[in-house]
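Example S7 (structure tokens).
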């Protein structure tokens, strides 16, 4: 009863249940053992979910006199398994080491039907599509870090992370098109495989020469490569043929090197300054093949990201804070991987491996009084990433939805906070949202 209650062996077990448009069931457990300088743990979680995804869309083209409407129901069933284990060890109270290992697997099945109507001048085409889609996501990763306290003012830490991710997405679409008295049936098979490999290494140093001043610096390196292979086949009247329209291959390698330094200085009881600077060098090499043609995209650019925060204590209850920061918003893997999702015969979702990262400049002014604060914020994003922008292809009569880079995006807002609750008292819609994709690399590249 007198010792540390965290020492020894502990375990937990849990069950959870819920409801969306179907049941949500799960279970989890963990077990750990902790000593004075050594600990080990293992944990596992399972989640099962059923849901229904609805998609209703349409478009109208004045020049082509095309009117299209579609309704789609997608029944989703998913199962996920997550396992994680780790070990930690402390040496002489100054050196700490830890290693973690994790395994994740998620399997999703989508089964559904989409019904569409296409009115083109005096022609009416009725479409019916049945599909079965599998999304298998397997990943495994490891993490290792070691930290060492050198005297009382110096601390070093080294981290290394490795992740391997495998995405498999086989899909079958059974199509039926009816035009006047003619009925055409055909099947489209899409088979996508995407192995990905990530490595991240970093070295950090923390120095505190005096109580009011704290300095952090470090370097970081990231390696990423993945390949997305998409094979498409079309079966018409029992004849199976390769379809180059949907087939593509993307190979991407990216290396990012970074160095940073941050400082936090409590100048006096009334003034505090936080400042930092980060430098990044990015090299991206992409090779794409679509419809039998190779295309190469090579990017080699550098960026500097400063940040500054000034805090002035006006009275015992009032504080004024002025801040500026620049950061980067990189495309997600879902945006980059050129997977294809056919909602119906005339609406497709695809990825965009040519997306550029967005650069965000953020300005902020805070006034705090007792438990209430008033904030004014303004941000400007160059090459903002807009998810799934529509683009109409008149030759194929397709509505293609894919993420695109906007020229810029500006947001301005006024917010109030009181007693820890967030209450926006006035927020502007984006001042400028120009939905125009970037046609060529900007100047900073």
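Recovered sequence:
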């Amino acid at each position: 009863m007198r010792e540390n209650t965290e020492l020894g062996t502990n375990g937990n077990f849990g069950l959870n249940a819920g409801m969306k448009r179907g049941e949500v069931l799960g279970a989890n457990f963990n077990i750990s053992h902790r000593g004075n300088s050594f600990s080990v743990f293992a944990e596992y979680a399972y989640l099962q979910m059923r849901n229904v995804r609805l998609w209703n869309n349409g478009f109208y083209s004045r020049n082509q006199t095309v009117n299209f409407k579609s309704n789609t129901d997608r029944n989703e069933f998913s199962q996920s398994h997550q396992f994680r284990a780790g070990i930690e060890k402390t040496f002489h109270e100054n050196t700490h080491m830890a290693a973690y290992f994790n395994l994740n697997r998620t399997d999703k099945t989508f089964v559904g039907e989409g019904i569409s109507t296409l009115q083109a001048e005096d022609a009416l085409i009725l479409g019916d599509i049945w599909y079965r889609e599998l999304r298998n996501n397997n990943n495994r990763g490891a993490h290792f870090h070691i930290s060492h306290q050198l005297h009382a003012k110096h601390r070093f830490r080294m981290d290394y992370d490795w992740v391997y991710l495998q995405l498999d997405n086989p899909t079958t679409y059974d199509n039926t098109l009816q035009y006047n008295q003619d009925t055409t049936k055909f099947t489209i098979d899409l088979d996508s495989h995407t192995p990905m490999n990530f490595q991240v290494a970093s070295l950090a140093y923390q120095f505190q020469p005096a109580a009011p001043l704290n300095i952090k610096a470090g370097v970081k390196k990231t390696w990423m490569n993945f390949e997305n292979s998409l094979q498409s086949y079309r079966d018409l009247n029992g004849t199976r043929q390769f379809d180059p329209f949907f087939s593509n291959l993307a190979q991407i390698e990216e290396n990012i090197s970074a160095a940073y330094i941050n400082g936090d200085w409590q100048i006096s009881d009334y003034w505090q300054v936080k400042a930092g600077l980060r430098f990044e060098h990015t090299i991206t090499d992409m090779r794409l093949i679509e419809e039998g043609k190779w295309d190469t995209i090579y990017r080699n650019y550098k960026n500097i990201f400063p940040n500054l925060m000034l805090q002035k204590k006006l009275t015992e209850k009032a504080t004024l804070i002025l801040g500026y920061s620049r950061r980067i918003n990189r495309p997600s893997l879902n945006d980059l991987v050129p997977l294809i999702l056919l909602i119906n015969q005339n609406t497709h979702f695809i990825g965009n491996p040519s997306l550029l990262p967005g650069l965000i400049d953020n300005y902020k002014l805070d006034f705090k009084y007792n438990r209430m604060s008033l904030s004014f914020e303004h941000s400007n994003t160059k090459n903002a990433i807009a998810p799934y922008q529509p683009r109409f292809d008149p030759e194929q009569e397709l509505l293609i939805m894919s993420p695109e880079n906007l020229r810029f995006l500006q947001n301005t807002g006024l917010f109030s906070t009181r007693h820890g609750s967030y209450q926006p008292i006035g927020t502007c819609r984006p001042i400028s949202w120009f939905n125009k994709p970037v046609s060529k690399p900007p100047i900073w590249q």
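Notes on this example. The helical segments are 333-336.
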